[in-house]
Amino acid sequence: MAERSTPTLAVWKFTSCDGCQLTLLDCEEDLLALTGQVEIRHFLEASSRADPGPYDVSLVEGSITTAEQERLIRQVREWSRVLVTIGACATAGGVQALRNFADVEEFRSVVYATPSYVDTLATSTPIAAHVRVDYELRGCPIDRRQLVAVLSAFLAGREPDLPDDSVCTECKRRGNTCVMVADGTPCLGPVTHAGCGALCPTYRRGCYGCFGPVRAPNTRSLIRQLRVCGMGDAELDRVFHTFNAAAPGFASARGETDEPSQ
Amino acid sequence: MTDRVAVIDHSALVELVGLLHAEGYVVVGPTLRENAIVLAELDDGDDLVSGWGVDTEAGRYRVVRRADDAVFAHSAGPQSWKSFLHPARRRLLSTDTSDGDLTVEPEPEPSRRMAFLGVRPCDLVAIGVLDRVLAGGRYPDPGYTARRDGVLVIVANCTEPGATCFCVSMGGGPRAPAGFDLALTERVDDAGHRFLVEVGSAAGEELLAALPHRAATDADLRVADDDLADAAEHMGRAMPEVDLRALLVDSRESPHWAEVASRCLACGNCTMVCPTCFCTTTEEVTDLTGEHGERWQRWSSCFDLDFSYLHGGEVRTSRQSRYRQWMTHKLSTWYDQFGSSGCVGCGRCIVWCPVGIDITEEAASLTALASREVGT
Ligand code: SF4
Ligand code: SF4
Ligand code: SF4
Fold this sequence. Notes:
Chain A: Residues 17-153 form the NADH:ubiquinone oxidoreductase-like 20kDa subunit domain. Chain A is an alpha/beta fold.
């Protein structure tokens, strides 16, 4: 193959738990192969090396919750040819976006011993609310296979395969028996974006939606069935309002959970 | 020369699995796994389900313990034979550039011969539909034909149709008239647990000859005839008795599609479980070095947004357009394309729809709306 200059990679963290970056570190053999193919110029979770851009690819973890982050993400966008958001925080605002539905001042005064030390915006917003995003990797945390697949696609110069199908399509392709139909276990698979390989239903648990909503999910209809499967108001509220609480497709489920059961 | 119709007992059925293995077949049949009776490779005859039935309704499936040891007293489970003839994921080819040149290796097709044990009459019709779609026409799919050729088919006629079955409406019935190597009709009563065996081919005849059996009496034949005639009278569901093909064409603008869309999740489960839905997409896989590549085929669904992606965007963005496409293809445009209905009345889409959308009910609603229109 003709010599080409080694592509450069940067990994960024905004407001998040670091779990998605750990998924990258967890790639073990693939990570070794990756370091042979790209020059990792900025990845503070793994090394203190922080070389300046521009970068060919930036992986961005976390949501935007401070004014400083608002500035930094614009910088990152300018420095990066391709920007990939990784995980529910970066793609939907994460669990910390629950603040969007509450009074941050109250949290600040109740939770922290010295509230004045806390520098925060009133909202937690996804990266795409601030800059253009090229690809999104969903999940809390992201799926390792998908991460490697996206980086491999980038290196090969082709589009990554990130279908906007439901988790059900992956579940059926795996040959699983549907937990909702056969066990009566509530499952968010029908309205949840594919990518995890139907991990939870494969272990006979209902999907809890950590990959966030598919485009235009019919949460109203699913909620009716989740109630038939025994979910009550509190559970419904929690299941739609945890990792992807602020994702529009799930946030709107808020007003639908109070529908009477059929 | 054996009899064309004979009777075997339960232990001979168990023995049949071993016999098929000895002849080199991979035997696929119904077995209990987790909370469902699934189709899977059987390690031996004892893997065959026995003493379990199912309780099905729209969006609901429960296995239930039976008072007897019946093997085939259950209706369509979560998969169909499609999973074995047209797998959910299949590698098409591999590429390699590690020594500088590009080499392309097509995936070798499997050479194992399969025996399908317990094929329902509706599913036999469905296999015929897949044959026309994937093996007929000018460009047969070699992956399909490699799996399909030489499949030994042992039918299990239906004596206990489920609450969601409607094969009779679709022109079939609980008894397979032809197209099998052997066909079994199960009976459990005071006289014991036995299977009437009809021979449909020379291979079937040889198998029967190798099993302990007795000649069928007139009484055996009459009992099976009665049981199957009775089953035909007890379909849990029925399609409206109208020209479905015309109904769907005439219902293009029906207000009913919006109503279905308020319930439909566009999750794609109905297409995945349907024994005749055949659509696929391809995915390219490369490793991080870029030296190894693979092309895979996987099941796709007309309910996926990406499915109708053309230059510039998707064509069927609304749920109602996607549900309409699916149902219209199954019951109407399939005739234009492949000369038959795409629905065989197995009821799987009704059972495995998480919100219990029922193709027979939707057809009835469309019929009611259409006749109202004619009336006004
Ligand atoms: S178990 Fe959940 S993800 Fe799987 S098919 Fe059923 S509803 Fe869909
Ligand atoms: S009809 Fe049922 S199974 Fe099919 S896409 Fe709609 S909700 Fe899913
Ligand atoms: S459309 Fe439904 S009932 Fe008809 S063959 Fe497909 S899964 Fe069976």
